[in-house]
Amino acid sequence: MKAKVSWLRDMCFEGESESGHKIILDGTNPGEGASPMEHVLLGAGGCSAIDVVSILEKGRQVITGCDAELSAERAENPPRVFTRIHLHFVVTGHELSEKQVARAVELSMEKYCSVIKMLEKAVEISSSFEIKAA
């Protein structure tokens, strides 16, 4: 996997993935785009949410929505690494099985999400979920 980050102006950069997708990274708060640390947090949520949806669909659950709400704590002093990350999944659908949703979240956290597996070596990671009827 390859990527490129190019300076645009001030503390604003454009990232381009090998597949040609572009994002804005901005060290200014607030800036034109999310900060690099916000992108790491979004990556964790996106990776895990993809797993949860995929696992539930394979389990023939009728899902209509899946949100990963993330909260993180950072160290007070530089480098301001993440010290804790919590992912709360809100899964919406028709007659969803609580057991299957719990198992999907667990499988993502413990086996499939490569971003979570990488981050958990240095960060305390926790998760929870709730189910809403569609």
What are its keywords?
three-stranded mixed β-sheet, 33% helix, globular, GMP Synthetase, Chain A, domain 3, 134 residues, alpha+beta, N-terminal domain of TfIIb, three-stranded antiparallel β-sheet, 40% strand
Description:
With 134 residues, the protein is an alpha+beta fold. The chain folds into two domains: 1-34, N-terminal domain of TfIIb; 36-133, GMP Synthetase, Chain A, domain 3. Helices cover 33% and strands 40% of the residues. It is built from three helices and six strands. The strands form two sheets. The chain has a three-stranded antiparallel β-sheet, with no helix packed on it. A three-stranded mixed β-sheet has the order 4-5-6, with helices on one face. A hairpin with a 7-residue loop joins strand 4 (62-74) and strand 5 (82-94). The chain is globular, with a radius of gyration of 17 Å.
Topology-level CATH name of the largest domain: GMP Synthetase, Chain A, domain 3
CATH class of the largest domain, anyone? Alpha Beta
Rg: 17 Å
Distance between the termini: 38 Å
Strand tally is: 6
Mean pLDDT: 97
Structural class: alpha+beta
Protein name: OsmC family protein
